[in-house]
Amino acid sequence: MRLFWELCKLSFQRQLTYRAAALAGLATNFFFGLLRAAVMTALYGARREVAGLSLESAITFTGLTQATIAFLSLFSWYDVMNSVYTGDISSDLLKPMSYFTFWLAQDLGRAVAALLMRGLTIMIAYALMFRITLPRGWQQWLALAVALLLSWLVSFSWRFLINLAAFWTPNALGIGRFAFGLSWFLSGFLMPLRFFPDWFVRLCNLTPFPATINTVIEVYLGVLTGPELIQALLGQVLWVFILVMTGHLVLRAGVQKLVIQGG
Q1: 124 to 26, 63, 121, 127, 133: CA distances (angstroms)
Q2: Most buried residue, 39, 43, 141, 218, by CB count within 10 Å?
Q3: Total-model pTM
């Protein structure tokens, strides 16, 4: 456990050294957030509410989704894939912890740094520029914290699984780009899932993607309460279990293939 937290700390400190990159990413996320807020305002027009969401909540949605881009690495993450192609995996597998846990610790440090430097900053800037929705009461804040943690676990487990395609193909970037692009549509990142037809929402819920974005958004906005809230959090837990177990099975098969081929 101590090694796990040391890796987290090192990863966190590494992110803090790239301040110029963090500022550039923050500016980009915030700029596109403003554009999305303008689009949302135009879509609502004179309507006060759409699918149970007020304009204030819709604008908050644009800020939240922009704030989670870096936290969840929504656009790309190929670190495990690169370690396979460069051969670094051979030394990583010899470390005194599992390969999955090794990358989990590093990604946790990265995610916390991104949440503090970019996510929190974007939400503060939104609060200064717009009337945004805030969670009410410590129960909702606690539920949000749990949802955020579980969303990161789902996201990491999914990204780790996709990166393992590198064991079977000399260039898995295409697979990764397709997987990331698919997640934008099915997670509720581009638009709240409540805006879509019921059949599409049911299709999305058959995938892990809503557990990364949509659940966090609806917990923050207070849309989910009581049994619905518990069900959503348990859904996240279920997807964490499924993806982690699948990831370990695929990793075992990939390492076996690597060893057989003399890698």
Answers
A1: 12, 10, 5, 5, 12
A2: 218
A3: 0.91
